[in-house]
Write a structure and sequence with these properties.
Elements (H helix, E strand, L loop, with lengths): L8 H12 L1 H4 E2 L2 E2 L1 H17 L4 H10 L2 H12 L1 H11 L5 H12 L4
Antiparallel strand pairs: 1-2
Length: 110
Amino acid sequence: MKHKLTFGRDIQALLRKLILRREEYFSNDKLNTEGRKIFEETARMLIHEHPYFKPIVKRARRTGSLKDVLRIAELVLGRREVKKLILSIQLTPYRETIDYEIENKLGNFS
């Protein structure tokens, strides 16, 4: 029987904040100074709760890329919620752009 991982509410809230306020915390799809502060707090708590996530967190720390942060968010929040968060901040009327961005940023992490 598979056990579902649980994550602290603070970790989830900080990841949602990074995604929903992406324009504020990322520059050219890389964490900026303020975004890095939030991500570091998230990473610290995540590694404390689930030490086996250290390799993926280490990679995200090193690259600071939106793609790596979204990969962690997908593990914590689930793919469906990450997609909903991305869709909720889209202001463009062009659906293809949204679909492309979701698939391009999230990729296939199966």
